[in-house]
């Protein structure tokens, strides 16, 4: 089977699993909700209106990584991977089709989420929302789509290595909500190169760290590429 039919087959799998559709909806809902809540708090000298508008991405990414992890881990239940590889014997081609089938819907939802989050954030912030420029707002929306896509693919690569959605989420969610936050508070510049911290620089109007908006996303992309390479290696070497 060539790449196009393989991609179509993987898209059918994702489209027909309700839990995956719910995960994509969760990306939008969680991001918009927490961005609205963050917009109510405008106190403090370090207040960043752009980051406040996209604050919910920190929570929406949980739904994104859940989507990526479940899309891959579903193949390791009930012999589904053997069936998939029977149709697409080239394992790397199959995995590439899976990755694209995950990336495209997350990117689309991520861009929509970015636009909605910006609108909700501006509405909640009121007069404070006049801070970010038009270019910064566009950067935030585009960055939102790219960042969420990278995090979903990062989870997909890790799920291919661990062969378990539960193990993947048990690793990533505590890391994002606890470890990354704690390290970021205590380690200085080291935390700038963590996958989530680096990518979220794109949501800041100003940033004093070592990375800029796009170099931060490049660091996240490097983490994602490493996870996907490890996942591809495991898919190719391990028994189905």
Layout of helices and strands, plus pairs?
Layout: H1 3-16, H2 18-38, H3 49-53, H4 57-73, H5 80-87, H6 91-125, H7 134-162, H8 165-186, H9 195-199, H10 213-237
Helix pairs in contact: 1-6, 2-4, 2-6, 4-6, 4-7, 4-8, 6-7, 7-8, 7-10
In short:
The protein has 240 residues and is mainly α. The chain is 75% helix and 0% strand. It is built from 10 helices and no strands.
Explain the overall architecture.
With 240 residues, the chain is an all-alpha fold. 75% of the residues lie in helices and 0% in strands. The protein has helices at residues 3-16, 18-38, 49-53, 57-73, 80-87, 91-125, 134-162, 165-186, 195-199, 213-237. Helix 4 (57-73) runs antiparallel to helix 6, helix 4 runs parallel beside helix 7 and helix 7 (134-162) packs across helix 8. The chain is elongated, with a radius of gyration of 18 Å. The model has no long low-confidence stretch (mean pLDDT 87).
């Amino acid at each position: 089977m060539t790449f196009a039919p393989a991609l179509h087959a993987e898209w059918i799998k994702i489209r027909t699993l309700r839990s995956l559709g719910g995960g994509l909806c969760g990306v939008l809902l969680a991001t918009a909700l927490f961005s609205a809540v963050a917009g109510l708090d405008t106190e403090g000298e370090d207040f960043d209106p752009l980051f406040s508008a996209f604050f919910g991405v920190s929570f929406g990414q949980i739904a994104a990584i859940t989507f990526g992890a479940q899309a891959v881990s579903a193949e390791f239940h009930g012999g589904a991977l053997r069936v998939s590889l029977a149709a697409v014997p080239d394992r790397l081609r199959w995995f590439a089709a899976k990755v694209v089938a995950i990336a495209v819907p997350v990117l689309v939802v991520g861009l929509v989420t970015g636009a909605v989050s910006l609108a909700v954030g501006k509405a909640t912030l009121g007069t404070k929302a006049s801070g970010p420029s038009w270019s910064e707002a566009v950067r935030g929306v585009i960055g939102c789509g790219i960042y969420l896509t990278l995090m979903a693919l990062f989870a997909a690569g890790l799920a291919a290595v661990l062969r378990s959605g539960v193990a993947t989420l048990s690793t990533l969610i505590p890391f994002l909500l606890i470890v990354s936050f704690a390290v970021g508070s205590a380690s200085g510049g080291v935390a700038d190169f963590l996958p989530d911290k680096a990518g979220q620089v794109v949501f800041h109007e100003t940033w004093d760290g070592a990375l800029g908006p796009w170099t931060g996303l490049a660091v996240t992309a490097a983490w994602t590429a490493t996870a996907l390479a490890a996942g591809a290696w495991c898919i190719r070497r391990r028994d189905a």
